[in-house]
Each structure stands twice: as C-alpha cells, then as structure tokens.
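job 3f2a | input accepted
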Amino acid sequence: MSAAIYAWFYLLGEGADPAPNPFELRLQLARDFYNCGLAQSLVSPGVTNGAVSIKNGQREMVIAPAEMHVDASALPWSMDKFVEFVMADVYSVHGLSVRNRNRV
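job 3f2a | predicted structure (104 res):
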C-alpha cells in the first residue's frame, strides 16, 4: 500500500512541480507501482488466486496503518452485482503468436 500512496502523490498530488510528461518512463513506472501496490494491498491474507477484497478498513503498512474508504457511488453498477474482483496481472495468455504486418 505504501508504494501505491507514494505513486499516487507523484501522479496526482498537488505540488509546485509541473505534471509529469505522459511519455516519460518515470510516469509509466509510477503508474505500474500504483496499480500493483494497490492490488497487492487489497488481497486478503491466504488468498492465492488474485481475488481482491474491495471494502473499507485498515491496511497495514511499514510506517503506520492506513485507513481505506471505498466510495462506490460513482460506479455505473452496484458492488453487490459482482461475485469477486481479480487482479488482471495474475492471468497468463497462451496460444497467441506474433503477427507482423508489412505494408507495401
């Protein structure tokens, strides 16, 4: 969760510096740190299939615990319509081959 918080401040925090360039490697790394850190902090202890628990509560961090509040009012669907949420990076894609197209 710490990585997600620090990455959020870099990506969206209010500061004196200008916003990062979207094509800059540091922004892409911060985005990946945010996504992975947030997803890992939502996994319940003992879960091995990548299912995350999106609910209010305290998350333990190295420095101090962080309180998380979920506001689902902006979502187009009700949260009770979903069985579970699974992190996208736990999936493996097999069977696709590289297909190069050359225009003449």
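job 3f2a | Strands lie at 51-52, 57-59, 66-68, 85-86.
job 3f2a | closed
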